[in-house]
Amino acid sequence: HRLAEIKSLSPDTWDKPLPLGYFPKLGAESGTPYQGRPDKLAMADLPNLPLSLLEEWYLNIQTAVKNKKVVTAEGSEINLQASQGRDEGISVLGDIVEALNSVNGQLYGSLHNLGHVFIAQATDPRGRHLTNTG
């Protein structure tokens, strides 16, 4: 297939320039085109939302994986396992990463969804140009 290996985004790369830009050729329902992103732009803090928050959530999720359990908002624990082909917690991890029905949004945040926001806002992290980033 001759495609290069994808380099993952992780806390040690979040402040580095994103090598490839993206030009969606899409727009909002109103017809306003979404802003493209040139090559080699880096993610940055957004107003009232520091990039370090993504790292905090990432580390909390990584700890949950390492410990094979997540902590609910009430303080109880859910084991991340499957037994005899029956899911007993693995889907909980997916919900945390996707921030869909997360058992503890405060601890695990919205890593995937806000990761998209940080990438999209790389062209104008302060919102000075009022561009539509999608």
Topology of helices and strands:
Blueprint lengths: L16 E2 L22 E2 L9 H16 L1 E3 L5 E3 L2 E2 L2 E2 L2 H9 L6 H4 L2 H10 L14
Labels describing this entry:
single chain; 134 residues; alpha+beta; two-stranded antiparallel ribbon; 4 helices; 6 strands; elongated
Helix/strand structural class: alpha+beta
Note the gap between the termini. Answer: 31 Å
**Radius of gyration from the alpha-carbon trace, in angstroms:** 18 Å
Beta-strand residue fraction: 5-15%
Model regions low in confidence, pLDDT < 50 over at least 5 residues: none
Shape assignment? elongated
Task: Give the strand line-up of the largest sheet.
Answer: 1-2
SSE ordering: EEHEEEEHHH
> Main beta sheet, described?
2 strands, antiparallel
Number of helices: 4
Q: Can you characterise this structure?
A:
- With 134 residues, the protein is of the alpha+beta class.
- It has four helices and six strands; from the N terminus they run E-E-H-E-E-E-E-H-H-H.
- It has helices at residues 52-67, 90-98, 105-108, 111-120, and strands at residues 17-18, 41-42, 69-71, 77-79, 82-83, 86-87.
- It starts with 16 loop residues before the first strand and ends in a 14-residue tail after the last helix.
Q: TL;DR of this structure?
A:
With 134 residues, this protein is an alpha+beta fold.
